[in-house]
Model the fold of this input.
Amino acid sequence: MGYALNFNLIWRHFDKLWGGLLLSLELAVISIAIGIVIGLVLAVWYVSAGRVVRSIIAAYVEFIRNVPLILLVYLVFYGLPTVVDLAYSAQTSFVATLSLYSGAYLVEVFRSGLEAVPRGQIDAGKAIGLTPWQRLLHVRLPTMLRITLPALSNTFISLFKDTSVASVISVPELTYGAQWINFNTFRIVEVYLVVTAMYLLTGYALLYALRLVERRFRAAH
Amino acid sequence: MSIAPPANPALLDIRDVSKSFGSVEVLRSVSLKVTRGEVVTVIGPSGSGKTTLLRCVNFLESYDSGSIRIDGKEVGFRETGTRQRRSERDLAKMRAETGMVFQSFNLFPHLTAAGNIMLGLRKVRGKSSAEARQIAEHWLGRVGLAHKADSLPAELSGGQQQRVGIARAVAMEPKILLLDEITSALDPELVGEVLEVVRSLAEDGMTMVMVTHEMAFARDASSRIVFMADGGVSAAGPPAEILGADIDNERLRSFLARFRASHF
Done:
């Protein structure tokens, strides 16, 4: 074994990793927030719409789910601006991509959640005279959110890991930070060990926090 | 010359209502009148159309022909003679005039006992939050659950949940209360507390149509019993007559005999 581990250079540039981690979290949070809006709107639309709208929504979902994320990132960042007259930063481009990406998965999550709301609750809402919109807002959505919360946390943790794909268009998130340190110090083993640990710890912390939230909601169910 | 209203107008007027699920005819030309303050119990074997009839009254189910009127107003269809379904907004308004209590309680799981009652008061009746809370507390007191106002449904027993279900329905001050086998999902020892609430509502003059298998309760609390079989009204009359030994209706007799054999 000729390779001696030396973490000193990693610690010297740790600000790159720390800043990258924060940016990764930020990208994931913004993307899931937008994704939730996309998912909710399309899911509600889907369950109440006719065949044409359903097919269009289904096509969007199928497209996103069957194309690798990295390809979508390239398409939006390099492809789209050459076709339409748009200028945006790599970061904006990535958030848009990841939002569309998570939105597609969440449409499915929310749609099945809406369909899982017990008929009896909807009947009870009708019986007291709630309009369809009021039933959606006060009966179906609250129950649906409780049903879908575990899937929602899983999606969020997935998205957090998926932010590493942003490194391919030079968004300075955690994986990009690792690459930068690697190029500049050649401590490839050390830097990727540290970054792996950072992804793992953050992922576990998120999982733990979200499970706590879920348990509180379940108690209220 | 003015036309005098009929002396005893029906609050609920079901006329010749028929309904099929595919090729199965679940209601065959059912007619039933219920006057204000009456408690009508619907009995009959399972599959005889009792629950479907009840669900047609507040248009949770549509029907193929006939008419259902509450206080003279057609419930589910526009009164244009073309049998056009009312808009969802109008349906919601019509449904607010009837209250319904369900076999499986159907409380909103994310809302407290008080919250369940307040939802309709606020969103449908337009009451302020404070006013709705006051009404909710009043009705929770009436059903003996004043101390459970802030409990979630999951924290309540079946009997307590059903009493909240009743409070939720009556707090809206409906013209008529529909009770759909409200004790069927309860453990036997919890049935009494729920029926007690229904009895006190009857004493207050609440108009009720009740589907039940509690024969003793039907006998004591109702002004009329309707026996349904195969989607039609097979017999109707005062409890003493319908549950009496000398009724001249073979189906009713065999239903009651089977019922007694399995319940005693």
Observations:
- The two ends of chain B are 60 Å apart (CA to CA).
- Residues 213 and 259 of chain B are 9 Å apart (CA to CA).
